[in-house]
Design a protein that fits this description.
Length: 294
């Protein structure tokens, strides 16, 4: 998603999600009056949250809690988006929380929602649950007065994410309301060459989310027909990168992180999508790009 009204902070991302309860954590941030501007001044890296029914205190974006019989869970504050999805002209906030334990295979995340009340960011509720491909959070955005939450899903092969769906919410006086769920979009994990990775679409769709680790260049391929239009939107992340679409050894088009590419394909056959890092490799070299064939 690239049209989020405002994205104000990102910490290291871990994919996935677990049920967290509908507990409420009152806000105590005195950051002035006037919701929209004030919400941007809230320090979401340093405040209390509810994680799996545990009240935790995030400090510099990190937190931990003890689970009896399991051990210590460590987590972080991930993406924070701010915008109005209640229709009252005052901004709300959606905060991705991510955590895991070294003694289990689970990698969890959730979305905590905040509204502006009493001159502070007041916790409204947590959205839901999941573990990696089993309902995990892929992304959040606020667009056109609605909250969009992408969740991972997986097939019978296990918990590795194979597709994403987008749930759309609005906040009304009666509470949070789910107003729509999108079709599935394939998730394709790119790998370094020469490993062959084919971009496949979910039934009755022609969209795919490309993901990968850009410690080195990665690639995947798809089969397409002359005259079809390829669209590719490259998300901005912590790692700068560029994507090339190649057919028969010739570059059909290129796009840098944060840009969009649209090309009518010149021939029928195989097209390679190659993603290469630019500049120094950062601590979080992951990338995400959306591809569609029309």
């Amino acid at each position: 998603m690239h049209s989020t009204r405002r994205i104000i902070r990102c910490a290291a991302a871990v994919l996935a999600l677990v049920v967290l309860g509908q507990c409420t954590v009152g806000g105590d941030d005195e950051v002035g009056q006037g919701g929209s501007v004030a919400m941007e001044g809230v320090d979401f890296l340093n405040r209390d949250y509810v994680v799996h029914w545990h009240r935790v205190s995030a400090r510099d974006g990190s937190f931990e809690y003890e689970e009896p019989g399991i051990g210590t869970y460590g987590g972080s504050v991930g993406r924070v988006v701010i915008g109005d999805f209640s229709g009252d002209g005052v901004d709300e906030a959606a905060v991705v929380l991510e955590w895991m334990s070294g003694s289990t295979t689970g990698r969890f995340s959730d979305v905590a929602l905040f509204r502006w009340a009493r001159s502070g960011a007041e916790h409204l509720q947590n959205l839901g649950d999941g573990d990696r491909g089993e309902g995990g959070v892929s992304d959040v955005a606020i667009k056109d007065g609605k909250l969009l939450v992408e969740r991972f899903g997986s097939g019978p092969t296990g918990s590795v994410p194979e597709f994403v769906t987008t749930e759309t919410f609005v906040l009304r006086a009666q509470g949070l309301k789910l107003v729509g769920t999108s079709d599935r979009t394939s998730v394709v994990w790119l790998a370094p060459q020469p490993r062959e990775v084919e971009i496949r679409f979910q039934p009755r769709t022609s969209r795919a989310r490309l993901r990968g680790d850009l410690t080195k260049a990665v690639s995947a391929h798809l089969m397409a027909t002359a005259g079809q239009r390829l669209r590719l939107s490259a998300s901005v992340g912590q790692q700068d990168y560029e994507v090339d679409v190649v057919h028969g050894g010739a570059v059909v088009g290129s796009v840098a992180a944060g840009g969009e590419l649209s090309r009518v394909l010149p021939a029928t056959g195989r097209y390679d999508v190659r993603v290469r890092p630019k500049g120094a490799i950062g601590s979080n070299p992951d990338f995400s790009a959306d591809l569609e064939i029309l």
